[in-house]
Design a protein that fits this description.
Oligomer: single chain
CATH architecture: Alpha-Beta Barrel
Number of strands: 8
Distance between the termini: 28 Å
Radius of gyration: 17 Å
Structural class: alpha/beta
CATH superfamily: Glycoside hydrolase/deacetylase
Bound molecules: zinc ion
Length: about 230
Amino acid sequence: MSTAILTIDDISSKNTPAIVDYLVSKGITAVMFAVGENVEKFYDEAIYAVRAGMIVGNHSYSHPAFSSLTIEQAKAEIEKNEQILNKLYKDAGVERVYRPFRFPYGDKGGAIAQDIQKYLAEQGFDKLDDTKIEYPWWSQNGCDKNIDTFWTFDFEEYRIWQSDDFTVENVWAKIKNMNPTQGAALLAEDNYHFILTHAHDETEEVVPGYIMQFVDYCLENGMIFDKPTFLM
Ligand SMILES: [Zn+2]
């Protein structure tokens, strides 16, 4: 049996409410990392996620690669989205208890990486509880110390619409691989994962209900979805 926390990036989108309805029906609370621009575009859909009890975190305003930014630009990207998310929770009538952050592309900022971590700590961003992750790569890369939320398994389903030679079959192969050369097997006994997927209408067009399909398969194979908790 493996255990996981589900994280869904790049909300909001047209397909966000359907994803949320599915997760609620399965009793799964996801951490959804929102892009400010997308929340502005699909505001009601983001409100829907907040009201359904999903934890909506900060994934920057315009999804830049943080290593290409100055520290001032990085802070501005995070702050601008914070204001949008504060308003979102207020408009939803829900108290904003947790404020996790995830970098776009997993790009922690290169030369300004340490300054950003310091900033995230000063601003009181919340670290998703990662104490059950035993995968060696995690601590070797400092993810156990960093405030931002990285992941241990990426469905990579965004590649289906972004490239010609990657299909949903590649995603299934990755999900079922019990002995990957990179990363930790998703469904191996006793593994603990932060799973990454994305709320992309582009993927929905090619593979309708893709998140439901992947999560259903994980559930059928004994995966337990943990409720996200945060470290102080
Ligand atoms: Zn993203």
